[in-house]
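[Structure tokenization] protein backbone as discrete codes
[Encoding] learned vocabulary of local backbone shapes
[Protein] chain in single-letter code, fold in tokens
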Amino acid sequence: MACLTNEGASSSSSTPRWIYDVFLSFRGEDTRKNFTGYLYEALCNQGFNTFIDKDLQKGEEISMELVKAIESSMISIVVFSKNFASSTWCLKELVKIFECKSIGQWVLPIFYKVDPSEIRKQVGDYGIALAEHEEKFKDDIEKVQRWRKTLTEAANLNGFHYDDSSTKFEFEFIQEVIKKISSIKSNHMPLCLAPHPTGINTRAEAIESLLDMESNDAFMVGIYGLGGVGKTTVSKAVYDRIANLFEGSCFLEDVREMSKIYSDKIQLQKTLLSKILHGVDLKVHNVSEGTNLIKQKLYGKKVLLILDDVSDPTEVHNLLGEYNWFAPGSRVIITTRNKGVLTSLQIDHRRIHKVEELRQYEARELFIKHAFQTSNEEDYSELVNQIILYANGLPLALKVIGSDLCGKSIQEWKNALEKYENIPHKNIQERLKISYDGLEETEKDIFLDIACFFKGYKKDGVLKILGSCDLCPDDGIDRLIDKCLVTLEHGILSMHDLIQQMGRAIIQQESKELEERSRIWRYKDTYKLLTRNMGSDKIRGITLRSPKPTKVALKANVFKRMENLKFLIGNAHIVEDLEYLPDELRFLEWHKLSLSSKCCAPEELVALNLSKSNIKLENAFKQGFQYEKLKMINLRSCEFITKLPDLCCPNLEGFHLKYCKNLIEVHESIGFLEKLKVWDLKGCSQLQILPSTLRLKSLEYFQLSGCRRLEKFPDIHLEMKCLNYLDLFRCGFRELPSSLLYLTGLVTGSPRIEVELDSWMQPEYFPALTSLNLANTNIVTIPESISRFTTLECLRIEDCKERREIPRLPQSIRFVCATNCNRLDTQSSSRLLNQVSLSFSFPLKFKL
């Protein structure tokens, strides 16, 4: 359970940075020349920076110097003696000390020859003194009540009691106090000792906001991020800022490693108990006993626990068991590389924070602090920029490389940078590889495939390709995202550059021989492999992407020895037509590829991208064979294609034929592809014949703009309810079929053609229409029926130079672009402007 308890609220704020270890508060005339004097000397001898007011206390108000000293002390020791309460100065000091206690200062009372119950009950000398104060301050009785309340609070704290009946000598008693002070300080020494904590404050504040220190609930907060991104550093900073707000606190570092060995698990439990209990050393014989002890000893205490670098939920369970027993106000912070750990622990997603890479200016600042001590950084400015780009905001890399290069010459920097580009730094590689080592075997394959081939590709397409390789990529990629090895932005797979380099280095370590490696991606390696015909069945994927237009002379059967090749990606112009492609190929992406009539698409193919290639489809596909696994085809700008035959691809989902300028005819069978979702025929300027009927019940996107010679639009089958985007700009249609009304799912329509709109612009035809583009046409009027399109939000009618009228638009409209409608009549202009001014709070693009 991520929610630990459910109780009320309390207040707190961040811990200040201490100047003094100890502040001594005492009644001078009672103890200055004896007990307190000896205690002060002992504290100083033990190295504690201790503040003592050496001046005799005079006047009613305590000085600002004392106030600042109290605020700047980690621990306040209050020595209660016989005449303590008779001093208003001491009482005011005490109130100030307890104000500081509420924001994290430790208060340790010493009851020197006075019974704590006398202070708690306010009898005896304390009762007499307070009665006198009430008489003296009868006009400000609240002040005395505040003193009474604070004295009671102080008497209820755990502290030290010494009187004449004690069997210990004073020096022995003082040594016990010193031991306690040592324990408190050692347990609350600042953890964030990074010499250059760039960007720490803003990141710590983001986590503190999730901790909601005003709440008295007990709960968990999760911190996750890439290895080396600074999770440990920022969590230490948070610990330093808030630890003293709790009765006990503990930062357990490296939980993942310590949980691998049974004895280390027990040591973790002992460390936790010792820290929380301020040095008490309890014996723990096994993990179960340790878990029970932790619950027993921590029960009822408001505690702060930070478990750093957790890799599995069981590591938390082994330490804490069930964690619904924490006292109100307690906080448990988990840091991990794997977001899935936090989800498994049922931490509220609103209390999970991802530590991001440094911004560029932060990265520069951190690197410069590590890299320069005596050198003039201006001489290295260009190299600094290259390293900042290489590290891509990862603090680990900036620190390691900065420290390595510190004090070295410009030439040494250049040599190092060239090396880093090819061989990752060992210290960086080892830290980043930890996340990879924790993956399942199929997840490792998915990660390496993305690192070598699919960074920058759409996730949906990669899922289909890797799914055909029996890798279960749906769960696998989600796990990689949780572990911060892969990122997903707008549906595109990506990863940090150094993570990618780490993955590729793993492949390079498979063998010194290229043909013995599973994946080849560097141009010079692939060029060598292919031109020397060095292939083998070990190779899973190849990329031959030339940095500039290049002709490569390869043998027609260069891939013959690569029987297990699954991914083939390239752009180099192969001089000779290929005659063979491996049967296991799943993904073929090669621009400007030439295939001989002997070479057919492999049967296992899932995605085919041969844009700008010299191919004829009747040769590229085996006639009569069902390509049931083929999901995506991209033949953009293939000028040799004149006719689209029956491809026998029943499960095709994406078909891109944009700018196939010589395509004339599309086979009737294409109109019956039930799985087809995207069909792009934009710019097929010679296209004349489409299937007579479209029964594409999964089609969502249909692009026909620029098909100037296409005069007849197919009949639409009533099952085509999924189509939400249709573009008919600059097509040759003179009329549209009445069956268009079956497109009830249409959201975006661009019927920018010279047809009569009245016949098909009926709201019942397109009930979901939100965007309508009629731009750059010679249509003179828009039907009045447009006002009944109650979901229409966007209307584009710019550059319609013949348009004269615009009727009243629906109230749902949010954006209108009507620039360069030069012949629009005054009434339409006024109506449009009036509707805009009454209904819209955003600009209208409108020009007469």
